[in-house]
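Minutes, project check-in
Item: structure for the 238-residue chain
Input as provided by the requester:
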Amino acid sequence: MAQYIFHASDTRGDADHGWLHSRHTFSFAGYYHPERVHFGMLRVLNDDYVAAGMGFGTHPHDNMEIISIPLEGDLEHKDSMGNTTVIRNGDIQVMSAGTGITHSEYNHNKDLPVKFLQIWVFPDTRNVSPRYGQVTLNLNDRHNKLQQILSPSPEDEGVWIHQQAWFHLGKFDDQINTNYTIKKSGNGVYAFVLSGEFEIDGKALSNRDGLGIWDTSEIAITSKSAGSEILLMEVPMR
């Protein structure tokens, strides 16, 4: 029988530093909740707002798969591997931190904020060589269907990571039904509503709500308002 855990938007950690406003679905930095440390191999889901011209200075990571999904504005990235890039809505960025990297992230614009999701997934292989990847996807390919944005395979659609994980984005008209089939037995799915309203396996979710689902092979999704957008993150539970 399917198991569920619901995280209402307004119960997330809330860190407001002025230039940065971050909502934490799972324990992060100064926010700690003993029942919200991770969902399977999904460790961090941060919903970040960065003021114009501001950003995160150079800092280190290791042994983590780090995914950035821009929602609005332009995010500038620099890292110790020599990459300098700007990512925008429609782009997906990934870093395999592996044996260790440093990087910085800044709002590329001096007059507009940037909004993005920062997601960390535990890797299935430690101490790999650090790696950077970025793709630009066709936003039309997620209209009324789920567009794959991440997988374990370099040959598949989207970016890839060192984990048996699959991410999908979908943007739906009102009252559209779709099913998501679990790719790997034993995995669970964390659904995060980016905008609008959905019903997932009969459970109502609205803007920025999250729902973890496991011990199932398929989930039923219905959009409940026009323009509703959702992110599905399938990850191993153990």
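Outcome recorded: The radius of gyration is 17 Å.
No further action items on this chain.
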